[in-house]
Specification:
mainly alpha, single chain, 2 domains, Tetracycline Repressor, domain 2, Arc Repressor Mutant, subunit A
Length: about 200
């Protein structure tokens, strides 16, 4: 009986934590980082403002945790079915297409991560560095491609800017109904990304 009661309490408390994270995601995406005060987050999550501090130290901690959890989900999706010994182009295409699918289907999460990348004050440097670790398989693939003379010998930030970041722009255009990411367009977008980084 006691163990069942403990389990029920844990489930309920985890639900509150998830509600707080989801409320933060929604408010930051729609109102911006500075217009997402703790009071609004608590109200949307249907908890008292004091409850937030049971789970998070402050707003910065809440944003950092949300960022890291979304980054981990993005990473899990990006490297689904990826094997480190795949040929460089094939491995990159698999990762790239996985990332595109995440951005197409996890729109809110992708939008939030894009904001974190663009607004330097949203998350702290420690969380940013921790988030970068989630991309290590891609960085390792690019490094191997550079050693094999396939990928340009430039900074991984440049490679990311030319090969991955344009996806965020295309997703935004699709959300505005200015552009449709059909399978044909995705194939063209991938080839453009590959041509931007290959030697």
């Amino acid at each position: 009986m006691n163990s069942n009661l403990t389990m029920a309490k844990r489930t309920k408390s985890n639900e509150k934590r998830i509600a707080l994270l989801n409320a933060t995601l929604h408010l930051v995406n729609n109102n911006g980082f500075h217009d997402a005060p703790m009071s609004k987050i608590a109200k949307m999550a249907d908890v008292s403002p004091a409850t937030i501090y049971i789970y998070f130290e402050n707003k910065q901690d809440l944003i950092n945790r949300l960022y890291l959890e979304n980054k981990a989900s993005f990473s899990e999706a990006a490297f689904k079915n990826y094997l480190p010994d795949l040929p460089v182009k094939k491995g990159f295409e698999l990762i790239w297409r996985n990332m595109a699918q995440f951005k197409l289907h996890q729109v809110e999460e992708a939008k939030f991560l894009s904001q974190c990348d663009n607004i330097s004050t949203m998350i702290d440097e420690e969380s940013r560095q921790e988030g970068l670790k989630n991309l290590q398989p891609l960085l390792d693939l690019w490094k191997r491609g550079q050693k094999e003379g396939i990928i340009k010998s430039v900074s991984p930030y440049l490679l990311y800017a030319y090969a991955i970041y344009p996806l965020a722009f295309l997703m935004t255009m699709q959300q505005r109904n200015d552009f449709e990411l059909t399978e044909g367009n995705l194939t063209e977008a991938f080839e453009s990304a590959w041509n931007a980084i290959r030697i």
